[in-house]
Amino acid sequence: MVIKIIEFIFSPFLAFIIGVFFLGLFRKIVARIHQRYGPPIIQPLLDVIKLFHQKGFSHGALFDLGLILSLAGSIVVVLFIPFGGICPLKSSGGLLVILYTMLFLPLGIALSGGEGANPNISIGISRKLILCLGYEVPFLLILLSTMSFYRTISIVDIVNSQKNFHWTLFSPLFLSGIAYFMILPAMLGMRPFDIVSAPQEISSGPAVEYGGKYLGLFHIQHSFSIFIMIALFVDLFLGGGENIFYFFLKMLTIFFIMVLIHSVFPRLRLEQALRYLWKWPTIFAFLGVIISKVVR
Amino acid sequence: MNLEILMITAFGGSFLTYLCGKVSSKVRDFFAVFISLILVVFISCFYGKSQTIHYFNFFNLPLILTINKLSWLFAIAVEVITALSVIFSLSYMKNKEKLDFYYFIMLVVNASMLGIVLSGDFLSFYIFWEIMSWSAFLLISYNRGPALKAGMKYIVMSIIGSICMLVGIISIYTSYGTLNISQISSQISSASSDYILLISILFLIAFGIKNAIWPFHTWLPPAHSEAPSPFSAVLSGILIKMGSYGFLLILYIIAGLNLFLELFIAHWVLCWLGAITLVISTFIALLQNDAKKLLAWHSIGQVGYIILGITFGTNLGFAGGVFHIFNHATFKSLLFLTVGAIEYRTRGVRDLNSLGGLIKKMPITFFGALVGACGLIGIPLTNGFVSKWLIYKTLILKGHPFLAFAALIGTWGTILSLYKFIHNIFLGQLPEKYKDVKEVPFSMQFPIVILSLIIILFGILPGIPLKVINSIAVSAGFPSLDVSIWGIASEKGALNMINIFATVLIALVLMRLVFQMGEKRTRISQDNNYAAGSYIPVDKYNYTVEFYQPLFRMIKPYFRDFVDEFYSKIVKAGRTLSDRTRKIYCGDLGYYVTYIVLFLVILIAIKLWGKVW
Known about the structure:
The structure holds two protein chains of two kinds. Chain A has helices spanning 2-33, 43-52, 61-80, 95-101, 104-115, 119-150, 155-161, 174-188, 199-202, 213-237, 244-264, 270-277, 280-295, and one strand at 56-58. The model of chain A has no long low-confidence stretch (mean pLDDT 84). Helix content of chain A is 71%, strand content 1%. By secondary structure, chain B is mainly α. Strand 1 of chain A pairs parallel with strand 6 of chain B.
């Protein structure tokens, strides 16, 4: 019981730390590629603390609630994801529940931003939802291929079936893994898919009306979502992790590659992004589903 | 309590309401609400009972009323939704004309739907079915203008369906000599599979038209959007579910699912029809700019989920499909009522491009719309999530990833269009002309709040309805599901809504505390906004028109209503053909004599060379 409670408190906290660390690392790596020195790695954490001491402006009750809802949703998703042997909410519906609880993240921000009554936000959210539709097509196919490959909807079962280096990435489903890797930048909102925040076009989109602690919470939410997307990849295709350290190492590798991609690509337009997402990743994911049907 | 008294109350009440209207409008309003509420009480008295009554003999055909668990479940849904719609109508329909007629027909539709679910033989079923179709036509075309055209489309398709059903009923009668549903179901198992296929197809066309399955859906979008909003709620919530009831009747009681599953092709076709219905109509909904039309297309889409659930023939799928029927009744009625509330306060505006920012003026309506939208999307903690979860799980575990993919991607179409719905009505900048809009009166808030609470309650404690549905599934011959009050407790992939609810609640409280830790916030108005330093133009600082423009540009050519265009072409061709034929009758005697002579020549020619006789 005590261990369970510790798990419940520990895993969101750890996810937060890792997410913030990734954000700091992100700035550092990009700076080094630009041949700058870059801010210290704990800079995002310092930023959040600073933002909590600044005055915020609210547009109404939903403006606050939507952001809180999005954060709460991300914490709940973290509790569902196995993390190096820790999974506080094992038996509550599995991958389908994760998939649907993940909806809290964009929808919370969308509702909160909507009350901000700024067209920049509306454009940003409209782009975000379209981009979501874009990567959900391959993403859902990928999830379905793994679920029907292992004939279970429980993510813990999927992780357990991959023990001893029987990773899904090295199984007949490797095409699905490649497809996930190809859509990961879009899921993380990194370049070439930073269409949603696009600072030069729509003034950071959904974040434009956020200031003070709102912006701080928005950053925290972003760090959580980075953690969730990468952790899902590690769980589904890289065999989870025997312990927290291995899990973290796998996540770090994936994130590092993502940052490298981010720093060399320019931004795509939304149509270009959709065309890309609905072409190769979808074809690979589709083949993955067919393979999973043939193998089973 | 007797079923005859129930039906007499339902039909007699509607006539009395009409007569009361001649006395005074207050008495009529009161009486209509009274009748609809008393029917809710009556039906709830029947909980867990079964009764069969033989009430009339029609040329040696016994007419039977019967109630069992399945029909009880449908009856209570019919009554609750109708009662809430009638209460909603009190304010919504005020100051409109022909109100006696409106309430009369509303209650007749209600009574006939009750009759359909309580019928124990096909003759009463057919009679009540026709009463429902025709009275619904009268209400769909209540608003005149474009509504008349919508009603015409509806009634033509309905008649086609009824004729199919009639042929099926007559065929059953000539083969078995009885129309009693329970007798037929015991006799039909000996029939050949071809005969069962024929009967199934005939009935499935009839029910498919009412249920608006692709490609029989074309009547639904105009009918739903042109009907008065409280009746749209009834129409979308339960009237089209009579088709689903018919499906359940055919698949599980008449044909028997095992027989139907043997007809592999039929099963396969029905599943894929469900998937096509779901995807196409959800994405067409995304392209709509009329709030009610958007919801109407979603009604078609959700029917796809129901079909996917109930055709699969496992206890999980059955429970999911039947549960989704009721969930859809709750959240879709709720959404139509909220649109009605918006129409009521903005004097009939339901164009998504011209509204905005109403959340500050109508918070309760917004709450209703948000809960309804969450239910329709299937966000956890709403009832829609549980039923969709059951359906997805069935599809995945049965090894149909592509059907599951159709269902899941349909959800994303729903998210996009419902966010557009909420954003364009309630969020963004409030236009100047709606500065003085007020919240709707209590009689309109009441149904909205009740339905929202039902959605949330059944989302957190899905065991309450699932236990009833499970007992139906057991009586239809399925193994029992391991249902507990908080979800499904089967050993492989349990669903525990209480766990999810508790964690979401704790996380919300926690985040609220974190939020409180920060510096105090200041409330600012919508005009105090970031505009890169320039001033904010009144009424123009908004982004609603063409909300998903880049996506629209890509998908618009593929997501048109091709079926409707095809039907229109047929109608047009028929009209041209008739026009051409009419030209023969030019009114000139000389031509007519020519025709006669020509005809005789042809006859003689055939006689001479053809040697037919």
